[in-house]
Amino acid sequence: MSVSRRSFFRTVGAGSAVLSADFVIGRGHEAMAFERVEFQAPDDGGFLRIDSNENPRGPGKLTVEAIKASTTYRMGRGYAPDNVMELYNAIASHWSVERTNLITATGSGPILEAATRAYCSADKALVTAAPTFTTCEQTARRMGAPVKVVPVDKSLGLDVEAMTAAAQGAGLVFFCNPNNPTGTAHDAVTVEKFIRGLAQSSPDTKILMDEAYFDYAHGTAVKTAIPLAKELPSVIVARTYSKAHGMAGLRLGYAIAQPETLRAVGNAWGLGSINTLTAAAGAASIRDTAHMDEERAENARIRDFTLQAFRDMGFEGTDAHTNCVFIDIKRPAKDFREACAAEKVKVGRDFPPYEKSHTRITLGTMDEMKQAVAVFRRVLSASPSSRAAQ
Ligand SMILES: Cc1ncc(COP(=O)(O)O)c(C=O)c1O
Predict the structure, then answer these.
(1) Which CATH code fits 5-60+289-381?
(2) Which pTM was predicted?
(3) Rounded CA gap, 252 and 281, in Å?
(4) Which atom of ligand 1 is least distant from the CA of 176?
């Protein structure tokens, strides 16, 4: 049986909070082709947590070094951290946009909330999908704005035609590409046609392209909508450092759009202020494109293993462009979730309208997925009805 990440670190000993990269690379079960700083994993009550699309590897080595190098006087005198401008310059230069095309926030969640508040109202609807990430929907409902929910199509991708029809006269369309939880992604041709078509037929409707998982997208057909956000006042692209950059706990996200569009978003809701360590990490991480390539490759290796394991058990998942997989387990997600939790593996919540058939599983490390798959095999080999009757 393989060694779990947690038991591995327990074996190594609690004293080594940060292990040398060489040591980590040398370890048997998870040899990686790239350097990583490994932290001692927390003891999550013995649970394997693959339920919230977090990154089990954390930030890259250069990013951790940048954080350490910023642990200076700035932390004491840092109400206006002097390296936030460096973060802005790094992001703007990465995407070839002006600094005025960019706002940052403590995660992309506040940006989603702010865009909804800026552009939806009692007579300006939000158009969103089901299932998809729900911050915009929750915000619109809290505001009393109408919400038009468009179910994903048969392939579990966003239904672009139906969303276009629903969006006529709406305030904001939330378009998650790649989509959480289904993992599906739309290619550049489809996205551009959708955006330009809507800009013509409903010019006052804004489109929020959530590209939280974009760094995990595979193939050349899927492209960022950032050039369209530069060109058109109706497009906002939201990005997060919480996924492939491995910085969920550091809280950093940003939006790219035209300055006037961003002004409305920034005025609608508090976006938080970026602290000096997060700014240093954000600048270092976006520059470290080699690390991002490695992170994408590692995620793909673990995704392929996990999808194949389910296929071998007779269950299909979508072609995931994310750090999660969405699997047709042919039984209620709740039954599966509870049976896995009884074996100390936590998987995703219900995702209506697929809560009777599908589960979302976040990709942990390869070792974690090997352990999880052994549990999934036991749980899924019991017939759905026999479990339900228990
Ligand atoms: C699609 C999507 N957008 C945005 C977020 C928000 O992430 P954060 O606020 O950590 O940037 C998440 C988090 O899971 C997500 O899945």
Answers:
(1) 3.90.1150.10
(2) 0.90
(3) 10
(4) 1
